[in-house]
């Protein structure tokens, strides 16, 4: 995260400031507990050969009645543009539809975050909406949010 902070800060609310090592450890403990309880599914990816951290992602339940999930992701700056984020999104999408019986999966991001939008598009998501003045950016300004989606029947058709 430290390496990628300049790229994450404009887009990710949780990257408003650099976390300390203790804060990162506490986050990882909370994430593990949420994963084990089925409340949220944060995932870290590592290079098979080197063991180096590549990216953070997650499958986040948004409405179990549908069921609907959201996928979030960020890739280490030095490893971007190698397909890792797209591969992770595709794997989580498959898990959502095949293992979690999802009907809808969303990816949300700032419309100016071109790299994140490109990952969603490469992973087979389509733009559904742009929500105006939907979130606060880390600088305090209001920003829009684009919503990319994939539905269960679209996923099954694409298989």
Structure commentary:
It contains 5 helices and 6 strands. It is α+β, with helices and mostly antiparallel strands. The protein has a single domain (5-158), classed as Aminopeptidase, CATH 3.40.630. The chain has a 6-stranded mixed beta sheet with strand order 1-2-3-4-6-5. The radius of gyration is 16 Å and the shape is globular. The mean pLDDT is 88.
Structural topology:
Blueprint: H1 5-8, H2 21-37, E1 41-46, E2 53-63, E3 68-75, H3 84-99, E4 104-109, H4 114-122, E5 126-136, E6 142-151, H5 152-158
Parallel strand pairs: 3-4
Antiparallel strand pairs: 1-2, 2-3, 4-6, 5-6
What CATH architecture do you see? 3-Layer(aba) Sandwich
At CATH level 3, the topology is Aminopeptidase
Q: How would you write the strand order of the largest sheet? A: 1-2-3-4-6-5
What characterizes the major β-sheet? 6 strands, mixed
- Compute the gyration radius: what is it? 16 Å
Terminal-residue CA separation: 34 Å
């Amino acid at each position: 995260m430290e390496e990628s902070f300049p790229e994450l800060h404009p887009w990710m609310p949780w990257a408003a400031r650099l976390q300390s090592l203790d804060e990162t450890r506490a986050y990882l403990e909370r994430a593990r507990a949420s994963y084990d309880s089925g409340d949220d599914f944060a995932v870290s990816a590592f290079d098979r050969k080197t063991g180096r951290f590549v990216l953070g992602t997650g499958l986040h339940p948004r409405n179990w009645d549908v069921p609907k999930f959201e996928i979030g992701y960020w890739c280490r700056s030095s490893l971007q543009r190698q397909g890792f984020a797209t591969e992770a999104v595709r794997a989580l999408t498959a898990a959502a539809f095949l293992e979690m019986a999802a009907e809808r999966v969303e990816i949300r991001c700032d419309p100016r975050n071109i790299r994140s939008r490109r990952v969603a598009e490469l992973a087979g998501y389509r733009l559904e909406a742009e929500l105006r003045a939907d979130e606060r950016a880390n600088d305090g300004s209001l920003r829009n949010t684009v919503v990319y989606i994939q539905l269960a029947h679209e996923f099954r058709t694409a298989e």
